[in-house]
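Following the same procedure, the fold was encoded as tokens, giving this record:
***
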Amino acid sequence: MIKTFTMRSVLLAGSAMMLAGSPAMAQEAAPPAPGDSDASANDMIVVTGSRIRRPDYAAPNPVVSFDAAAIAQSGNTNVTTFLQRVPALTNSLDNTRTAGNAQVDGALGQVGLNLLDLRGLGVARTLVLVNGRRHVASQPNSAAVDINTIPTDLIERVDVLTGAASAVYGADGVSGVVNFVLRRDFDGVAARAQVGISQEGDAGNRFASIIAGRNFADGRANLTLAYEYNAEDPLANDDREYLRSVNRANFVNLNGYDPAVAGSYQKGPLRDIRYPDSSTYGIVDIGGVRYRGDGRIYTPGTVLENDGYSTGGDDTPVAGYIGDIFPKTERHAVNLLGRFEASEAFKISLEGKFVQSTARTFSGYGGNYPATVTLDNPFIPPTILAAAQQAGLTSIDINRNNFDIPRRGEENRRRTWRGVVDLSGRISDHATYDAYYTYGRTDVRATKLNDRLSDRFTAALDAVRDPATGQIVCRSASARAAGCVPVNTFGANTVDPASYDYYLFDPVSNARLEQHVVNASLSGDFGALFELPGGPVQFAFGGEYRRESSRFRPARELVDNVFYQFDEYVIPTASSGKFDVWEAFGEINLPLLKDRPFAHLLSVGAAGRYSDYSTVGSTKTYQFNGVWAPVEAVTLRGSYGQSVRAPNIAEVFRPRTGDSGFISDPCYLGARGDGTQFRAANCAALITAAGGNPATFTNANNPNANVNIPGAVQGNANLRAETARTWTAGLVLRPLPRLQVAVDWYDIRIKDAINTAGASTIAELCVDQPTTDNPFCDAISRQAGSGYIDGYIVQPENVAAFRTAGLEFNASYQIPTARIGTFDVRLVGGYLHRLEQIPTIGADVEDNRDRPFRPKYNLTFSPTWTLGELTVNYNLRWQNGVRRFPRVDTADNPSYVAPEYFRFKELWQHDIRAQYQVGEAFAFYAGVNNFTNQKPDIGFETNVPISPVGRYVYAGAKMTL
């Protein structure tokens, strides 16, 4: 079993995480909790990655660890933001990437989520554990865990493990594991409070926590209660002057580009980018004359000929649609921890938690595309009315972007309950048992904000003048009785706020996710029977049962699509699904040699797991590893194994819903030579079977060539598990006292990865296989008599592949002095050698390395100086300037963009913090993050290479009694 340990154990055992070859980022050792029992210097520290108890320096897989002090010293109360400095976790999603318009595909329930993405392979492939156990998911139909559900001040350490983790922990860890180890055995009272704010006076943060615990029954029992509160103010795009409409620069296709002319570039930065043929004033076309909504002649912007934008004029500014950069968040977390040791043979521990997290964000505005208004509407300006009457019209259409109606938004409230009951004990001097049950539940309430009810907004647009009073009112008497206030869309900022209550509506959707886990294991050694030259053979084996379920119930108003025009881009569908899995697992470690010449330590090990899923059937995972330390100061380690990821609930159980899209048929005469050697013959067979003529099968002859084809989207019950092959190799050096250096290489290949291809891609996959007897052809239907595509089904398939490889470097050196204190210097760096994706079978390799959030090089340099009661921390976070554009765009095109714009600026984030200890009970600290005030580079990515919050100051106090 995995053994947790106290902060005092860390101090007495030395640099525990560093000895594992992956130095902790801690720059300050938190004071031990009062009442902690003295630990022996020989206590065995067990790190993440194995159920076998072994010294951490003998761990075969690279584990990068960060302790509570490192998190506190960063000034981050958001743990995900702190973990993004880890080379393996730079692509993780914090609040800035799940706010405003950053939400993916308009799906409900994403606002404010903090999701870890290990190795850039996706949040679905990152296994998040708490005390070595699974945690209930936070997003409907997925397995993704919101890090907001893990209380910051209860974290003792965070382990980031690379290796074939599925053999130890089960599915989903194809890229590795992030394990949060929580504090235990707390005796006393500890409290912390912190406030922070940007130099602009916004993006405020408030944090408070209190932990109270007591040991009793002669130290054999403990009860700890912890409460934590965290609130963050929103930050909107317009809160930063350089991001506002006129000042914001974006890269667009430039007019006048000529590749034959030196110094002419296809793309370049322009400010004041706008959407052509749209306006916040409104646009009315009458007889070829275009009027602005307020009656003036419309001034169009300068259209960018090869792009979908314009500059200047009365067009709508793009920046107005960016929305929030940070959402408004508030989090309450209550945790209850208890344990009782009846004897060495029977120990019981309990964990209970409740976390409520609320996040609210606003994105873009709605509009009328168009709204039809009759000529008796009194809001129509005289110039437009006269032109319409002269043209013999009875009504006019006005297109308008409504910047005077509140932005659309979403508020998500997540409530998470989790409980653990664990029984453990010693069977003999050579064996221990551990059995636990975990239950978790997340309830999500997703509220869409400021959607316009179609019938009510239409009634508010239909304004007339009341002949009795002369006042402008809604035409419908029933609408007036219901509170209708007329809406004027002629001109900018003309809508009366009193009208909002009548037609704005906030539909509420709900979801519930549940998890049950039962696990029992036995671990120990065969020392009672025999020993190898390096010691007794160690083992661990056991079984696990897990059941996951998810249910999503969208608001009836969303399903019925009762909202005005484009207020809802995605119509959600009710869904539900569940699966269970039975598993058996085992590990063994063979210590071949110990304390011999050229073999201070030599061991090999293996782990395996057999799983039987109700969805994908059986899977097998394994790992082989070895550790060799020829001398005490040098350790070589490596591992090789296979991991799996079973498809999540959405990928299997999503119900079929309608869809439509444009399809480029790969069987057109001009496209048959673009695919594999099988395409031409397969196309001829399909067209002939449908009654068409392959010789005349062209785009020109297809009557539906330029229209959207009706189709469907659904889950896929026939999915297989993804498979990853991972190997790691590392070197750990301890050449001097208090100096540790570790270098580890990793290589991960994933095949049969699950991906949802578009309809055109599915049509290509159908005919590019050796035969047409494949699932892709089953998803494409062709019209009888012609053979042209007339329908499709889009669903996830095992068609993708990934590969990533790189190197991580970790070093720590502590320098104690007699007079000027102690210096603790730490360096963590990463080199991303490759990050490749093949989205579908036969597709070109996509190189995602050296792109935003996936830098080729990064490092964190963190020196600490301690002198008496004063501790000063400095942190430098650096990343190379990543490519601004995908390689496919810039390949063989030297005039794509000017050289100075090819890359984003490098990240240079400087943080500093000072703490002063007042006696044993109190400490006060203050810090500045990004004290050089580096700003994001120009472009759509508002947080590359750094967040727009700018210079950020914070201060806090800690109490320990």
The chain has three domains: 64-238+325-364+410-449+509-647+719-756+795-960, 249-318+368-401+451-505, 659-715+765-792. The first helix runs from residue 7 to 13. The longest strand covers residues 575-596.
